[in-house]
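Hey,

Quick one before I head out. I ran the complex with adenosine-5'-diphosphate overnight. Inputs first:
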Amino acid sequence: MYEAVIGLEIHAQLKTDTKLFCDSRNDPDERHPNVNVCPVCMGHPGTLPVANKKAVEAVVKVGCALGSTIARFSKFDRKNYFYPDLPKGYQISQYDMPLCEKGAVRVGARDIGITRVHLEEDTGRLVHGEKGASLVDFNRAGVPLMELVTEPDIRTAEEAAEFAKKLQMIFQYLEVSDANMEKGQMRCEVNISMRKAGERFGTKVEIKNLNSFGVVKDAIAYEIKRQTALLKQGEAVVQETRGWDEHKKATVSQRMKESAHDYRYFPEPDLPVLKVGVHEGLPESDAIDVDAICASLPELPDQKLARFQGEFGLSEKDAAVLVSQKVAAAFYEHAVSELLEWYAEASGKAPENAEKEKVAKLAANYLNTDIRRLINETGTPFGEMLVTAENFAELMFYTHQGKISSTIAKTVLDEMFRTGKDPSNIIEEKGLAQKQDAGELEAMARAIIAANEKAVADYKNGNQNALQFLFGKLMAESKGKADPKAGRELFIKLLQ
Ligand code: ADP
Ligand code: MG
């Protein structure tokens, strides 16, 4: 039996205002090519790079969050190679003195070790046009890129995808990167080899340019099959770089793997050694205050997950859906606190714990199913939807109070999502408030009983489904406005 040994290398574009070594804008949404460029990021001779403090601080932040050791001294190195998207003929990266080393990310019940996190500059982008011509856009050249390398601790395709998702969430929570894989703001490379359990590591293959979590999973699954088949036939795995072919759904050989000495790394002579933390005589403007950065980390996904379960009594699954998006989690918390205020105002006291959990679960359900559905159907980003936390809380309150039924709540929510109106307006405008008028309901129920002799007879013979049928008619006739509990009781009473 062979097992997979997997290590990931993940690049994330940092969300800074300017590039890593110059003051050209770092704008991932710029549509016009070659506007955010200057002599420094275009590699003109005689220009000098200056490190962007914000980018260094962002990597330190990630290091703190992952429990890494933050270097006191770090430096930049030149990685030399030729490619048309690399204006200087070398990339400024970090070789033997990265900003962060060690650390871990928990995935399920396992800790995946982090080898290092360092800072480097991104390359330009090649646009392959018609007639075989290629164009270069240098807007991205010199944008700060954080590279994170894991230990070969990952064992399955699922675990690799989970790890990458978790990391994406952490970057987003820390607000260091939007880490959108579709936009290329986060990119994954997979290193994978197979071995018999307990034996030494085998020869690894590197798979580059995987641009979604699904592709990470597919490429690993494919490679596990391919390498296992080779080894079973007594053949060797060749150390190489492979790519993912989306049409063939297969990894394909791209080139032999280069090694460090091919790049002739050497210390970047134009940048001083980076002093991180407290250093005597370091000017204030250059100081990277590691303690302050680590002390001001936001609540991270794992902590929030545990808190949502404890504080609101949510299931792990419900809490995980909310936590998976920082904006959704914030919206939820805001809505619940508003909802509890509505509650306290109406009843003159703060809710008991059980009651609090009940309303918190109600809000989580509507958010995770109905709002999710509307968001998916319309492709609206969560942060841009028209429903505010205040309005959502108000709607949940009416639902909780039984002022409107769950059917009506969904109708109102649809309308809120489309128009951004508040729920009380919609309910009033459309006359959707629950019909509490007992006389009117009873008249409706009597008419239904008279018109459905068979169902009435069935019910009297002990068929409970018949009651459900009659009640369904009442709901239909009242257009969902009948109070479900009162409606059912009404039939039981009338049919006694
Ligand atoms: P290279 O020198 O080829 O770049 P590194 O030692 O820097 O290799 O490791 C690069 C990545 O490959 C890391 O994520 C590491 O965990 C992973 N890795 C190293 N050896 C193996 C192996 N035998 N099988 C799978 N992954 C490996
Ligand atoms: Mg390496």
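The CA atoms of residues 9 and 244 lie 16 Å apart.

Talk tomorrow,
K.
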